[in-house]
């Protein structure tokens, strides 16, 4: 492999269309590609649809499609238009270089050199300047190797700075004289500091990741991946690939990305648009089932029972309990004739509908038609010749409607759940043999509730209402659903998600070691069963590309306690000095200090403010002080808080983002400490910029987020903030693995035993 950077001594090209050195030629191709993309966009903007639409509705639809197309063709100057190139040994046909929107090169065309990028770009003749990373011809860029070059002679990667090519690196895959080596440009792209939301990994997808990304739409894939393995990015790129390969089908059926919270969704929301996909919806599980206002919370024992899959049977019984055996015949009067349907026949109809296990609402709609059909049979036996209009009229007859209301009354999902949770006798009748008396008592509300609106519904209650709603009327199914951080879902939440893809497929992403809810899943087999996807393929990503080896090895000491048998992530990144575990001596205020003890001395505050000001300038910052330090406790700030502020200042001397992660209970004190120190900070989900690179993160919201540098405050407090030790250690495992470049752990209290060994 050979790497190249620009040579300042290289004279300018005599012919700008054919520069003498490869880097200049690639720069010329980039400029030409940007011009071609601009021309493609201008062509769409110039479209006149006035004579091609039949009415204003068609015109509005077409205008919206054109607007989306214009957005997709935007040229982001800071984003490389292409990041790689393949030189094939043999010509590649036009069908292998098709664009995501069906852009087809001339059918007789064939190519040997192809540039790989985020979207398809073609010239005025239709020949590709850049081919979509999802096209078949692009696949060898990710999978070709010295052992299996896939007909590729040369793979070239490009290094960029602010959207301009600054270097390139060649691999001659079919040359036996060249030995296989790791790519420095690839490593640099993986380790590039991150400011702002999550970015795509389209230039750095690894072979094992690409296999998951390009797996078919027909099957569900479950990806078990530890911290830094790229599972979230893999899931998002899989959506982008499926939209490329099955655009028309998914345009009809829809796609959805489900994340654990709004902060996480905000963090990932720019990935798909950067890949040209603007129509994918995002939601949380709570948002999916939000049919009532959630204003309450459940104690952990109640939430666990409400999330148990057994509640589905309780709800099924509760819904069906509304069906009442017919007590009297139905008599339909039409003109001078009276038509009678006896009780036994009505009982047969009800029994048949119950035996079919139909949705409650669908069966309720079918019952009047069955009664009407029985009346029509009698009419025909009497010599009449009724048609379908007569059957519909009979089904709407007041006597039939009254009978249906008495036998199969309407059921409101929220009112049903309200009755279950507030009526002990009703719950006992429906939960007999399913929930124990103690379990029933645990989920019953202690105070009566007057109405659905006045109830303080919990998130688990909303899921129960969603389940009841599906028992009454089938939930609409999408074509594909991506479920991230899936390990934290309860069985009932899995069922809620599964209903959204009952006729489609799913990509399930998670890490069993990061399950931090009391109901976290114990195995993917159980999770997929509740999701309704027992035939799913489970893939495991064990190679870590983001978290440094030293950091992941330290966090992995917790695995035997939190996820026995789970494979440790093997990080490919060596970064000596990336981990610093620092004990903080405690003073009179105690390990964490009281919530209000955040006042720095005037001198200390001025010093910190000066450091912050210096850090806004380019270059390094040094703080020189005469020792010894002031006596402990003289600053008014607890020793731990002072150490945290200092560690944040230290981390901000590096390029990229910094996350300060702490137990939720510690956030108010740290907020005051940062404010007193003059350190500006963001909340989770806030977009980092060059001016605001520090984010204060409650441990409960850290999952799925990444920062270049992380300061972790008091691990023991993170553990103690959870209802049990295993959940607390899992929460700590999550917090320890959010760092991409460096981690500082500060503790005044004792570390958990697994972490204190050989500290």
TrEMBL record:
This is AAA family ATPase. It comes from Streptomyces scopuliridis.
């Amino acid at each position: 492999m050979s790497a190249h950077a620009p040579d300042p001594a290289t004279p300018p090209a005599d012919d700008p269309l054919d520069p003498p050195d490869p880097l200049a030629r690639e720069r010329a191709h980039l400029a030409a590609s940007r011009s071609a993309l601009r021309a493609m966009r201008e062509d769409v903007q110039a479209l006149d649809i006035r004579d091609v639409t039949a009415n204003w509705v068609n015109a509005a639809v077409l205008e919206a499609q054109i607007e989306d197309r214009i957005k997709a063709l935007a040229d982001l100057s800071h984003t490389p238009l292409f990041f790689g190139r393949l030189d094939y040994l043999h010509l590649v046909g036009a069908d292998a270089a098709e664009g995501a929107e069906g852009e087809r090169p001339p059918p007789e065309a064939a190519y040997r050199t192809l540039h790989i990028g985020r979207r398809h770009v073609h010239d005025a003749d239709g020949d590709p300047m850049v081919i979509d990373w999802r096209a078949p011809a692009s696949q060898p860029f990710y999978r070709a190797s010295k052992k299996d070059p896939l007909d590729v002679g040369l793979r070239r990667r490009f290094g960029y700075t602010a959207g301009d090519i600054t270097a390139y690196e060649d691999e001659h895959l079919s040359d036996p004289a060249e030995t296989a080596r790791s790519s420095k440009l690839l490593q640099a792209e993986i380790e590039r500091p991150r400011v702002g939301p999550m970015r795509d990994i389209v230039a750095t997808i690894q072979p094992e990741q690409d296999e998951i990304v390009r797996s078919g739409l027909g099957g569900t894939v479950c990806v078990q991946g530890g911290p830094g393995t790229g599972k979230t990015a893999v899931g998002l790129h899989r959506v982008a690939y499926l939209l490329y390969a099955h655009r028309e089908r998914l345009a009809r059926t829809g796609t959805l990305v489900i994340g654990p919270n709004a902060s996480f969704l905000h963090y990932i929301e720019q990935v798909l648009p950067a890949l040209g996909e603007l129509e994918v919806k995002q939601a949380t599980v709570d948002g999916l089932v939000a049919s009532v206002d959630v204003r309450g919370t459940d104690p952990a024992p109640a939430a666990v029972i409400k999330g148990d899959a057994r509640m589905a049977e309780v709800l099924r019984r509760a819904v069906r309990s509304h069906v009442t055996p017919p007590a009297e015949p139905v008599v339909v009067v039409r003109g001078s004739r009276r038509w009678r349907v006896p009780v036994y026949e009505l009982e047969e109809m009800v029994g048949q509908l119950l035996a079919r296990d139909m949705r409650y609402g669908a069966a309720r709609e079918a019952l009047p038609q069955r009664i009407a059909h029985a009346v029509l049979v009698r009419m025909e036996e009497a010599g009449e010749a009724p048609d379908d209009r007569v059957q519909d009229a009979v089904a709407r007859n007041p006597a039939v409607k009254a009978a249906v209301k008495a036998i199969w009354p309407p059921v409101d999902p929220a009112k049903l759940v309200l009755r279950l949770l507030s009526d002990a006798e009703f719950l006992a009748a429906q939960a007999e043999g399913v929930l124990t008396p103690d379990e029933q008592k645990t989920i019953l509300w202690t105070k009566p509730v007057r109405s659905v609106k006045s109830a303080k519904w919990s998130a688990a209650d909303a899921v129960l209402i969603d389940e009841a709603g599906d028992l009454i009327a089938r939930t609409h199914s999408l074509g594909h659903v991506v479920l991230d951080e899936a390990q934290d879902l309860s069985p009932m939440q899995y069922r809620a998600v599964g209903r959204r893809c009952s006729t489609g497929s799913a990509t399930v992403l998670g890490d069993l070691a990061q399950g931090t809810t009391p109901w976290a899943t114990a195995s993917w087999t159980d999770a997929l069963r509740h999701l309704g996807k027992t035939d799913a393929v489970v893939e495991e990503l064990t190679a870590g590309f983001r978290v440094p080896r030293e950091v992941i090895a330290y966090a992995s000491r917790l695995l035997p306690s939190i996820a026995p048998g789970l494979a440790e992530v093997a990080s490919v990144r060596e970064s000596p000095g990336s981990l610093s575990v620092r004990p903080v001596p405690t003073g009179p205020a105690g390990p964490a200090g009281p919530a209000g003890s955040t006042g720095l001395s005037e001198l200390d505050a001025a010093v910190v403010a000066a450091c912050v000001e210096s850090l806004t300038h380019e270059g390094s910052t040094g703080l020189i002080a005469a020792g010894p330090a002031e006596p402990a406790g003289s600053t008014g700030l607890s020793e731990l808080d002072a150490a945290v502020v200092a560690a944040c200042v230290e981390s901000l001397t590096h390029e990229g983002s910094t996350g300060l992660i702490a137990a939720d209970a510690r956030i108010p004190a740290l907020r005051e400490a940062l404010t007193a120190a003059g350190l500006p900070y963001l909340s989770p989900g806030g977009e980092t910029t060059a001016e605001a690179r520090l984010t204060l993160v409650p441990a409960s919201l850290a999952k799925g987020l990444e920062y270049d540098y992380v300061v972790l405050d008091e691990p023991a407090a993170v553990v103690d903030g959870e209802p049990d030790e295993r959940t607390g250690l899992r929460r700590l495992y999550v917090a320890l693995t959010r760092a991409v470049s460096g981690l500082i752990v500060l503790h005044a209290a004792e570390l958990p035993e697994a972490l204190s060994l050989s500290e």
